[in-house]
Structures are given as structure tokens and as C-alpha cells.
Write a structure and sequence with these properties.
With 144 residues, this protein is mostly helical. It has 5 helices and no strands.
Length: 144
């Protein structure tokens, strides 16, 4: 059996895909914690209620926590726009990338383009998490 050689930069792409997926999970984690913290601070939820909410939002699709934030835990419109844009990019990666990219990748095409898209997702995730951390810090009153 003759197995075609791996296209140039394919391993790098695989690493970037893995990092982008992991960073997407980290953003979902940050969003779930923002929601639980918001509810605890603004609506008096107990630690147990907030923890249960975090666990529920981590076990479901990212769109669920984004919808819950939009409905019940509003944030600055500009930041929420970034959250929605990130969710869309992360959903493309999780649900559409493979089908879209496979015909090209199997011929060794567009690999640098997809590497760039993965890097952009990872960079956006890091920036978004930093903004969410800042919002969370302002939300929780300083211990006196």
C-alpha cells in the first residue's frame, strides 16, 4: 500500500487546530463562570446555585451560556459583540472546519490559510478571556 506523504505544515496545522479548540473551551469556561458570578453578586445566588449553573453550562453547547448571558446577565454591548463573534468562529471550527477543509487539505492546499485562522481564533480567545477577567474583577466587590 502506498500512503501519500504528509503535506508540508500539516502537523503545525494539527497543533493549531488543537490549541484553537482548547482555547474555545477555555472561553466557554470563562463565560460560564461570568454567568454564575453575575447571578451570585447581582441576584443573590448561593455558591451551590452558581456552581451548579457553571457545571450545566460547561456540559452544554457554548451557545447556551451565550444565550443565558444575553437574557439574564447583560454585559457591555461591545464585549458581548466580541463574545458572539468568537462563538461563531468557534462553532465554525467545531462544526464546519473539517468538512470545508478536508478537500483542500487532502491535496495539501490552503494549509497556511487555515493555520492563520486557527491562530486568529486562539489570539481572540486569549484577548476575550482577559476582558472577561477584568469584567469579573469589577463585578466582585473587593474583600475588605
Amino acid at each position: 500500500m502506498n500512503i501519500a506523504e504528509e503535506p508540508a505544515q500539516f502537523r503545525e496545522l494539527c497543533e493549531k487546530v488543537g490549541l484553537a479548540l482548547l482555547m474555545g473551551q477555555k472561553v466557554q469556561y470563562a463565560l460560564a463562570h461570568y454567568y454564575g458570578t453575575y447571578q451570585a453578586v447581582r441576584n443573590g445566588w448561593s455558591f451551590e446555585q452558581a456552581t451548579n449553573s457553571v457545571q450545566e453550562h460547561l456540559s452544554r453547547a457554548m451557545g447556551n451560556v451565550v444565550g443565558a448571558i444575553e437574557r439574564d446577565a447583560p454585559m457591555d454591548a461591545e464585549l458581548f459583540g466580541k463574545v458572539r463573534a468568537f462563538k461563531d468562529r468557534r462553532n465554525w471550527l467545531a462544526h464546519d472546519f473539517d468538512e470545508e477543509a478536508t478537500p483542500f487539505l487532502s491535496r495539501g492546499q490552503r494549509i497556511p490559510e487555515y493555520i492563520g485562522k486557527m491562530e486568529d481564533i486562539s489570539i481572540a480567545a486569549r484577548a476575550l478571556m482577559q476582558e472577561l477577567d477584568a469584567v469579573g474583577a469589577r463585578l466582585v466587590p473587593a474583600a475588605g
